[in-house]
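Hey, quick one: can you model this chain's 3D structure?
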Amino acid sequence: MEPKFVNRFQRSFDVEKELYLYLHITAPPMLISLIILGVTAVVNLIVCLVCGLTYANLAVFAMCFIVLCIILYRYYAAIQAGRSRLKEETNNKGEITVTASLDGDELISESTAREEPVYVPFSQLKKVFVTKNFYMIQTEEKMVYVFKKGAFSVGKEEDFLPYVRQLIEHNKKKGK
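Sure thing. Here's the predicted structure for all 176 residues.
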């Protein structure tokens, strides 16, 4: 069967940077949490300065700062782990060629770092999110498969995201 979409690109550390930035900072739940954290910190600092309830409000302000530091540390640690993992996968070359395609009823991921392709049935697709340079498809097992913007050799890029969202919506309805 002819593949509906084929995407081939040189994968470098940019994928991990965008993935972890999304997961740890720019994903909607994280953004909402960071905004609430920031508002709480500012309000408590203002209350501390205006009302003079120094100890109680400084404690809340300190907690906000500590939580922010933990979030940033988790992001930094994920980046370092991703960098190490990519070095292992590429034998310190830093880049691998990835070909991802949607063919029939499965996603196929091939890589110069693996001997065998990975086959993922469409029924396993759970979420798709878009970063600056990539479309990222997450499966039920929390694996992420990447399609680079502008690197489609088969299929129209403008049709890709609606098609994947339709597959995921179908999976959600089927699971109910």
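One thing worth noting: Residues 17-90 form one domain.
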